[in-house]
Amino acid sequence: MKRMIMICILTLAILSAGCTENDTTDISDDAVITHLTYGAFTLQSMAVQELVINSTTVNLSYYNYENKLTARYIKPIDEETRSNLLELFRDNQFTKMDKLYEPQEGQPIVADTGTVEISLDQDGTTKTVKVDPYFHDYMPDKLREIDEALLKLKRYAAAISTEDAEAMAGEWIMNAPTYSFDGSNPVLTDHQYNEEEPEVHILTYTFNSSHGGYGNRSDQMVTQVITNHIVEIRLYNEIVESVIIDDMWNEMTQSMLDKVVEMKSEQACDQTPWQLWYAEGNINFLMEPTEEELVIAYFSTFHGIEISDFSSRSLNDGMCQYSLKIKESDAETMAEFGWQEA
């Protein structure tokens, strides 16, 4: 009798161990993985972003706020990448994770990051894990590792080849007002991209114009002189983000760029408006900000002014001299606060 009891106990232990193992690895090779983000402050055409990974392809779709499809990218996924992704879900026990992860007490609250939902569909069932707001510090390490792997595949899906980027940029420039008016001899002189950000391409071209000026000058008095131009075009996926000629002309908005000016101010080191604002506790940073980060946030929030190249140095009697650069169009506003051009 005792021998039978021991056999039963051993049998149950083996079965129990087998069940435990299945709980952590019970993910089908045919499972479909989805990475869905929404609610973030972003371009209207990219309001909802859905990445779907099946056994053969990586599909990335963008939708606007009305849930209308605005773009779709489909790339093949090789067997090794697919297998490694499934193993990551198994090893990190995705099926055992909580359904929702939110900020815990004491953690800072971030804004405008939206929500992410990671889902695993298999055998008619769906496991979804939501992070709201979408911020890595709110995730357990194993979920963060999964999210980073999916973001890498998202970048892969959206990336365009160097050949396609050059073809797209070249066509855009030749159809743009400045070149199409009197341009000739376009030459690609530089193409920068980073394997960590394959969706971003920065290309530099040179071309000649037979007249001075920019844009379509058919209704202007123009000088007939050969002018060499340098144009930098930035692509994000298949979207032309910016086109700047000679560091002076915005070809997308057909307007001159604002001149940048340097301004200075002497103030009590511990009584600056940005320090007083921070002391009131009405703004939260993810970590203690540098003074430059605080200055950028202050002027952007209250005055809509973009700050760059901030610096400071101590003077006598608790005074400091501050220096920063702004657009020339904002100089008058800064002068009202006691800032002077350097």
Q: Can you tag this structure with a few keywords?
A:
17 strands, Mago nashi protein, alpha+beta, 3 domains, single chain, Alpha-Beta Plaits, 342 residues
Brief description of this entry?
The protein is an alpha+beta fold and 342 residues long. Helix content is 30%, strand content 36%. The protein is built from eight helices and 17 strands.
Tell me what you see in this structure.
With 342 residues, this protein is α+β, with helices and mostly antiparallel strands. The chain folds into 3 domains: 127 residues, Mago nashi protein (2-Layer Sandwich), CATH 3.30.1560; 95 residues; 82 residues, Alpha-Beta Plaits (2-Layer Sandwich), CATH 3.30.70. The strands form 3 sheets. The chain has a 7-stranded mixed β-sheet, covered by helices on one side. A 6-stranded antiparallel β-sheet has the order 8-9-10-11-12-13. It starts with a helix and ends with a strand. About 4% of the residues have low confidence.
Domain unit count: 3
What fraction of residues sit in β-strands?
Answer: 35-45%
Q: What's the total helix number?
A: 8
Number of strands: 17
Distance between the amino and carboxyl termini? 97 Å
Average the pLDDT over all residues and give the rounded result.
Answer: 88
CATH topology of the largest domain: Mago nashi protein
Main pleated sheet: 7 strands, mixed
Q: Percent helix among the residues?
A: 25-40%
Strand order, main sheet: write it out: 4-3-2-1-6-7-5
CATH class term of the largest domain: Alpha Beta
Order of helices and strands, N to C?
Answer: HEEEEHEEEHHHEEEEEEEHHEEHE
Class from secondary-structure proportions = alpha+beta
What is the CA-atom radius of gyration, in angstroms? 28 Å
- Low-confidence stretches at least 5 residues in length (pLDDT < 50)? 12-24
The name of the CATH architecture of the largest domain is: 2-Layer Sandwich
